[in-house]
Amino acid sequence: MKKHVVVIGGGFGGLSIAALLARDGWDVTVIEKLDDLGGRARHWKHDGYTFDLGPSWYLMPEVFERYFSLFGKERKDYYNLLPLDPYYKVFFGDGDTAQLSPRKEENIALFESFEPGGGEALSRYMQQATYKYTVAMKDFLYKEYKHLGEFFNKRIMTEGLRLGIFKKLDKFVGNYFDDRRARQILEYAMVFLGTNPVDAPAIYSIMSHVDLELGVFFPDDGMAGAAQGFVKLCKEMGVRLVTGEEVTEIVTEQGKAIAVQTTKDRYAADVVVSSADYHHIDTAVLSTADSQYSNRYWEKRVVAPSMFIVYLGINRKLKNLEHHNLYFAENWHTHFDTIFKNPTWPEKPCFYLSCISKTDPKSAPEGGENVFLLVPVAPGLDDSDEQRDRYLAHVLEHVKQVTGEDLTQDVTVQRVYTHRDFIEDYHAFKGTALGLSHTLFQTAVFRPTHRSKKITNLFHTGQYTHPGVGVPMVLIASEIIAEEIKNSYGS
Ligand SMILES: Cc1cc2nc3c(=O)[nH]c(=O)nc-3n(C[C@H](O)[C@H](O)[C@H](O)COP(=O)(O)OP(=O)(O)OC[C@H]3O[C@@H](n4cnc5c(N)ncnc54)[C@H](O)[C@@H]3O)c2cc1C
């Protein structure tokens, strides 16, 4: 008889660990509370529009290629990728815009136009980012950290300064550039990691290698389409996929999980892997005696932003937008402060706007545009209906001022998704979109552990754990855990 593993949650984390464990000879059941698989990366279809509910940037393609190769497969058998050109457009206010290009020389010319010497500074900056990325991929990301000594190893002690572990990104970028536009382009991706450039360790300059050198891609059915590729892989590997059932209890006996109780059934388990929001499993699904962390621990975490998202179906073509568009306010620290220091709804927010119909015509009816507007906001804010309505009107007016596009005209679909939805759909801690921020003390060994210290056969994957936030990171976490399970239980 094969041993049985129950995986809680059917997002990228749950699907990726499930397929790996099935490959290793386990009988695998994934239990997902929602009716669809994909977790934060699901589709929402309405009136001829197909929206990506959550992630929309396909970054670090090599991580996905590597993942499929672990099965002797190729990613292209599961979904296609289109390279984006331009990668993205940036609005800086007052009509000032820039486009980031797949061609290095165009980006160098752009940075030179920002400030004299900016082009050469960009080349130097990218060299260090590439170096750090190579070291991170080889020595840090695909690695399990069980104790501090493994993190503060010889390499960190000798090279920590060069790698930027102990510096802050904002200051580090300031050593290369004075121009605020150059700095913002090299720092904005910290929002992908749920953190503030002022607090993020400078090692995260690797993100500029990720977007400007590894490139920005679009899976042919969006990120949710890529998640469906993982569903297909799971099915081929014989994984049982159960949807519409919520796990309410992990049943334990003498420090071991023996079963998983859902709203509909009970599943015996030799091993349990959770990819659901860690805080929810730790505080609401496990008994207090079995929880890994105290309430005090959770309250002291720096929780990553929530997001105010608007899905819009517009029955007209928008001229001023590309596939990915970003707006960086002149003083964006004011916005970051409303997220990390004084939680409030930002008045003049930076925002991200995607228009995937520029690349994928089937995502909108003919002649229409598929628009996704996202404002990062503090977790735990008041999210009443009145507040949503007020903020929606405010943000759409702001978008019109910045981009010149009026997104209140010819609207056929409109939906707001924010704190309450993250809590209702995923049991997200304080309505966070991304889990825990990537501050230094929430990086690597400092993230919540993969393996429970109380329940020996309970593991956690997903964005709360090392290496962290974002789909590629979640795939890496699953690889690490599959290896750990193989080492502990054989295959
Ligand atoms: C708006 C948004 C934009 C993003 N943009 C990007 C991007 O552009 N690129 C990128 O790489 N990443 C992006 N991310 C981050 C990325 O989406 C996540 O890091 C990743 O998808 C998390 O995967 P996961 O499996 O850890 O969690 P999830 O996808 O949340 O999966 C966890 C699953 O567990 C289920 N669950 C919860 N509780 C239970 C229970 N009790 N019983 C059963 N099931 C349960 C949930 O329903 C959910 O389906 C974005 C995230 C958001 C929200």
How would you sum up this structure, described in words?
The protein is an alpha/beta fold and 491 residues long. Helix content is 36%, strand content 20%. The chain is built from 16 helices and 19 strands. A 7-stranded mixed beta sheet has the order 7-6-15-16-17-14-18. A 5-stranded parallel beta sheet has the order 9-2-1-13-19, covered by helices on one side. Helix 1 (12-23) packs parallel to helix 16, helix 2 (61-69) runs parallel beside helix 16 (471-489) and helix 3 (104-114) packs across helix 4 (118-141). It is globular and about 65 Å long. The protein binds flavin-adenine dinucleotide. Flavin-adenine dinucleotide binds at residues 8-14, 31-34, 39-41, 54-57, 59, 246-247, 275-277, 280, 285, 307, 309, 425-427, 433-434, 462-463, 469-471, 474.
How would you summarize the topology of this molecule?
Elements: E1 4-8, H1 12-23, E2 27-32, E3 43-46, E4 49-52, H2 61-69, E5 81-83, E6 88-93, E7 96-100, H3 104-114, H4 118-141, H5 148-151, H6 154-163, H7 169-174, H8 180-187, H9 206-214, E8 217-219, H10 222-236, E9 240-243, E10 247-253, E11 256-262, E12 266-268, E13 271-274, H11 278-285, H12 295-300, E14 306-314, E15 324-327, H13 332-340, E16 351-355, E17 369-377, H14 385-403, E18 411-417, H15 419-426, E19 458-460, H16 471-489
Parallel strand pairs: 1-2, 1-13, 2-9, 6-15, 13-19
Antiparallel strand pairs: 3-4, 5-8, 6-7, 10-11, 11-12, 14-17, 14-18, 15-16, 16-17
Helix pairs in contact: 1-10, 1-16, 2-16, 3-4, 4-9
The protein binds flavin-adenine dinucleotide.
